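Entry 14. Two folds queued back to back today. First construct below, sequence then C-alpha cells.
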Amino acid sequence: MQVEVIRSAHERGHFACRKTRELIEQEYFIPGLQSKVERFITNCVPCIMVNRKAGKKEGYLQALAERRGSSSSRSTLYRVYRVK
C-alpha cells in the first residue's frame, strides 16, 4: 500500500523527492518515507527519460592500431568516436 501512496503522489506531476514527500505527509505517516520516495523516483522511467545526463555524450568505440613491439598480453586500447 505504501508504494501505491508514493506512486499516486509522485504521478500528480512527477515532482522531486521533497514535493512528493510533502504531499504524502499531509495525509499519511510512513516510516522511512524519505528513502522510499528517493528509491521510487530513482526508478521512475518517465523521470529518467526527461532528466538526461549532462556532460560528454556517449559514442562508439574504435580500436586503436597496435604499436610494433607491443606485447600480446596487453589489452586492446579504444578511443571514443562521437556521433555528430
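Second construct, same run, same settings:
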Amino acid sequence: MEQERVGPVSDAVTSDGVNLTTSGSGAVAQVKKLLFRRMLIGIKDGRFFLGVFNCMDKQGNIILQDAVEYRSTRRASPSSMEQRCLGVILIPSSCRTSCHVDCSIDEQLALLSLHQH
C-alpha cells in the first residue's frame, strides 16, 4: 500500500527563475509530486549526482538524499566513471547545469507547461 508523503517543499523557484509560489498552487503541487523520486543533477565542473529529491528552497537549491557522485576519470578513458556515496547533499542552483527526474511522459509535459506561465 502506497502512502502519500507531505514534503518540505512549500516555496520554490525553478532554475529558470520561475517562482512556483506566485505562479499558483498548481505549480507547487507539481513540484510536490516530484518529492522522493530519483533525480540526476549535473553541475558546472562535469560531475553528476544521483539521489532522491528531498526539497527545493526559495533560491532553487536542491537537497538530495542517498546521493551518489559520478565523475569522469579522464586519465584512463573518456567513458570510465568514478563514483562515491555521499548521503545527504545540497546542490546550489548556481552550480546546476541539468536536472532530470524519473517520471512519466505526462508528468514531464505538465512540468514543461510551468515555464509558459
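Quick look at the second one. Confidence is low (pLDDT under 50) at residues 1-22. The chain has two helices and five strands.
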